[in-house]
Design brief:
single chain; 390 residues; mainly alpha; 61% helix; disordered N terminus; disordered C terminus
Length: 390
């Protein structure tokens, strides 16, 4: 799914950058802890004491935190802005929902580019810094222009922002994998779990901000004017969508409509100012708290990378995982395009109600990852796996 963090991609990425399975057909040894493989890996790689919050690596979980802020902060306001305020069609809303996250589907091409070209000699750091800097630059005009932007321009700018923050996230995936391979046995898996915990935690945080700030009349009442001295519009395309027009035809735009669940809040442009400020405040961390050796490995040729990927896909563990992901997304990504509009028109779904489900999902995932990282990181699944396999 392009709407949730792609854990499947992370698994495949780690597999591509490791020794992987030695044979295509499974053997009984596949269900045993790979002690020999781990020992050989420890001998070939310089293991170290990894501290995620140190000056060397703080930028990695911070980048994942920014992804949680940006991904949720861009997707969630689409409902009040497109459905409630602009009354777009079901087809338009569904298309917009998918296009603003379209580049999640092309992370593999980012990865190939990063193996080919190292800006300033850095394989990961330069792309992380560039990606987040450009994301902030794209969010700035959205915050400045706000409601004056045409809906199509608004969606295009969010799509361009998606292009850049996915580029930063892909580089962070690669750096996180590089670090995870160098963790000592008693730390193994800590950085990966922390990274995704940071991502889901940020999604919860921005979800709460959306629930509190975008539930007021500014973001949910078409034609609303906070200034009582500003006259109400007579545009029927707007008045027909505000429930207060029938009750007070002259002063309707200064009143809270039924779609708003709180008397206070901010407008969509003001919310993007908040999001812009949060993401921009984290950018210096990527420059100052990411230490990467410029000489860790030379750039590779594209043909060599594609050949290695093709060889990896021939392994049973990899192609089965890819096939599972393909089938799962094909079967479970089918949606009813009219559902969101119908929920608003018939069930009077509010922005607050639409956000609560997302907050709960992300909170459960963040809590589960925290518990796993703290208490169950070193529990082996090979015992139950061998039991089920037998």
């Amino acid at each position: 799914s392009t709407h949730q963090p792609d854990l499947t991609y992370a698994i495949i990425l780690q597999f591509f950058q490791s020794d992987g399975v030695k044979s295509i057909k499974p053997t009984p040894d596949d269900f045993e802890p790979p002690t020999k493989d781990i020992e050989s890996l420890e001998q070939s790689i310089d293991l170290r004491d990894i501290k995620p919050f140190s000056r060397e690596f703080l930028g990695i979980p911070t980048s994942y935190f920014s992804v949680g802020l940006t991904n949720t902060g861009i997707n969630s306001p689409l409902y009040p802005y497109l459905i409630v305020l602009n009354d777009v069609s079901s087809a338009y809303y569904t298309s917009a929902q998918n296009i603003v996250v379209i580049f999640w589907s092309y992370k593999i091409f980012y990865g190939i580019l990063y193996d080919i070209y190292y800006p300033l000699g850095w394989k990961f750091k330069a792309w992380i810094c560039l990606g987040w800097t450009c994301t902030c630059a794209i969010l700035l005009p959205v915050a400045i222009a706000g409601s004056n932007l045409a809906v199509s321009i608004f969606v295009i700018l969010l799509t361009v922002a998606n292009f850049f923050y996915v580029s930063a996230d892909t580089a962070a995936d690669g750096f996180q994998t590089w670090v995870a391979k160098r963790e000592k046995p008693n730390q193994r898996g800590n950085m990966t779990a922390l990274a995704y915990q940071a991502r889901f935690t940020a999604a919860v945080l921005v979800g709460v901000i959306i629930a509190l700030s975008l539930s007021g009349p500014q973001a949910n009442c078409p034609g609303y004017e906070p200034d009582a001295n500003v006259p109400c519009t007579t545009d029927t395309s707007i008045t027909s969508r505000n429930s207060e027009f029938a009750n007070n035809p002259t002063d309707w735009c200064h009143m809270q409509c039924d779609a708003a669940t709180a008397p206070f809040g901010v407008s969509i442009p003001q919310f993007y100012w908040i999001l812009f400020a949060m993401i921009t405040s984290l950018v210096p961390i990527y420059f100052l708290f990411l230490k990467e050796d410029k000489k860790q490995s030379p750039p590779q040729k594209a043909t060599k990378i594609v050949s290695a990927m093709t060889h990896s896909c021939e392994r049973q563990a990899v192609w089965q995982l890819i096939f599972y992901s393909l089938v799962m997304n094909t079967l479970f990504s089918v949606t009813n395009a009219a559902q969101t509009n119908a929920n608003f028109a018939w069930l009077e779904l509010t922005t607050l109600q639409n956000t609560i489900t997302s907050i709960m999902d992300n909170f459960i995932l963040a809590a589960a990852l925290h518990v796993t990282r703290k208490r169950y990181l070193h529990y082996s699944c090979f015992g139950p796996g061998a039991l089920f396999a037998s």
